[in-house]
Amino acid sequence: MDQEAAGIGAAEPGHAGPEGIVVLHADAFLAVVDKPAGLTVHDSRLARGEKDFLVNRLRAQLGKPVYPAHRLDRATSGCLLLAFDRATAAALGEQLMSRTVDKEYLAVCRGWPEPAFTVDHPLDGGPGKPLKKPAITRFERLASAELALPSAGFPTSRYALLRARPETGRFRQIRRHLKHASHHLIGDTSHGDGRHNRHFRMMGIHRMLLHASALAFDHPQDGRRLRVEAPVDAEFQRALALFPQAVDGA
Q: Where are the beta strands (DSSP E) in the chain?
């Protein structure tokens, strides 16, 4: 479907529009965009007085209402799924609840975890939501690195590049599960390890190293399976350069 027929204005998939948001996929009913790190999706109690939100930029860029089907933390980049009408948003929400949406993330953590491991650890819903619910994340180690950065009495520091596949969608799930596994996410100022965060800041990497790299779901209109991928930004790419054995495209 061409852009005019889809009614999404001047935006082109794979290119940033006038509000700076890259549209990865778009049709008449939904879109997947590449959320930049450091941009909050929408206003909430956690926004802390912020005035710049992804949904506002997208409404201006696409010229229509947008309804995020899920959320990404402010510091996380990558694939974000949104609908252009409430019915499509509800249909996508049902897929998310039934766990038929496949979400993949890239993450850099401290230490060398097992080649494959699962964290099955209940999590609460964040501030004001103390009830804990089941939460499962599956991790795969893609590459490892040992850098000449002293830490905790050792002359070097070890890091790993992970692929994370959350089966549930709890508040800050990947970040909190990595902390639970003692493989803290690099750049995470809330649940991470400040010593290792400083190591990466000294290398010019200031962002949290969590990126929603791929999203797969069934289109609510015709049931076709869509998979959309988002490339990492330049700062995350600098982190990937620390892992020379990483697979191409990771």
A: 15-16, 22-26, 30-35, 67-68, 77-83, 102-110, 116-120, 136-147, 157-166, 210-218, 225-229
Nearest CA among 70, 44, 202 for reference residue 126: 44
For residue 48, give the nearest of 79, 70, 74 by alpha carbon.
74
Write phi, then psi, for 234 (nearest 5 degrees): -65, -35
Report d(CA 119, CA 135) in Å as an integer: 8
The SS3 assignment for 86 reads helix
Three-class SS state of 246: coil
Among 211, 248, 219, 162, smallest CA distance to 34 is for 211
Residue type, 92: L
3 vs 9, 16, 20, 248, 249, CA distance in Å? Answer: 7, 14, 18, 31, 28
Residues belonging to the active site? 73
91-124 per-position pLDDT tens digit: 999 999 999 999 999 999 999 999 999 999 999 9
Residue partners of 239: CB distance under 8 A and separation at least 6: 108, 186, 200, 205, 209
d(CA 149, CA 197): 12
The angle at the Cα of 111, spanning 108 to 114, to the nearest 5 degrees, equals 90
b/e burial code for range 119-130 (CB count within 10 A of at least 16 → b): bebebeeeeeee
Single-letter residue type at 164: A
Q: What is the pLDDT of residue 6?
A: 33
Percent of the chain with pLDDT over 70: 88
